[in-house]
Amino acid sequence: MLAVQQLEAGYGESVILRDVSLQVRPGQIVCLLGRNGVGKTTLMKGVMGLLKARKGAVSYNGADLTKTAPGGRAKSGIGYVPQGREIFPQLTVFENVLLGLEAAKVKTRTIPDEALEKFPVIREMYGRRGGDLSGGQQQQLAFARALASKPELLLLDEPCEGIQPSIVDDIRDVIRSIKADGKTAILLVEQSLEFVKSVGDYFYILEKGSIAWEGGLESLSDDVIRKYLTV
């Protein structure tokens, strides 16, 4: 499904990612771990096309997307919930979700039920402005907006950052339900080790902009955690 091959990317003169390769297979939840500042968000932006690849390649379902703009990547079936949510504060909740339809493969103005059934509270808040919502509600809105296009691959960058535990539990349940449906793969960046271990199938650890370790849950030992993740 998704294949990142020897990707190099950065900002200005700074190179953040070096020779990064990873894969996400259909229906799989792949978790990207690492200490702060190692390049996790940079990699997500590189996959989404928000940062141009200096070297390497990004392919999706066999198609080379390395030079494809973010809009084209979204329309190919990739949804994105960025760190910080990036909802539109002056638009209503309904209008924010509608924007997610811009990436749908089939043009429609009808929000699919599956985008809302995961977070029923979104429909109840349709008339409120996005900027008036709590952080947790904005995260649910960003999630629903991404699901509106029925993506086959969902990029989640720190979905639990700065939100209350009850909504963290809701997001965990949503990720598990997506996994159970088997229709959408997920590439997840998250700091909470407990959270990713409860949902993930395969794990990559970034260190200094490169993949330092990869493996399944059974291989994510205390020694690996101490070496690459403990602050």
Automatic annotation (TrEMBL):
Key word RNA-binding present: no
InterPro entries: AAA+_ATPase (IPR003593), ABC_transporter-like_ATP-bd (IPR003439), ABC_transptr_urea_ATP-bd_UrtE (IPR017780), BCAA_Transport_ATP-bd_LivF (IPR052156), P-loop_NTPase (IPR027417)
Coiled coil: none
Protein keywords: Amino-acid transport, ATP-binding, Nucleotide-binding, Transport
GO function terms (MF aspect): ATP binding; ATP hydrolysis activity; branched-chain amino acid transmembrane transporter activity
Highest taxon listed in the record's lineage: Bacteria
Gene3D superfamilies assigned: P-loop containing nucleotide triphosphate hydrolases
Pfam families per the UniProt record, alphabetical: ABC_tran
Annotated ranges, domain ABC transporter: 2-231
Family: Belongs to the ABC transporter superfamily.
NCBIfam families (alphabetical): urea_trans_UrtE (TIGR03410)
Protein name: ABC transporter ATP-binding protein
Species: Paenibacillus abyssi
Lineage, top ranks: Bacteria, Bacillati, Bacillota, Bacilli, Bacillales
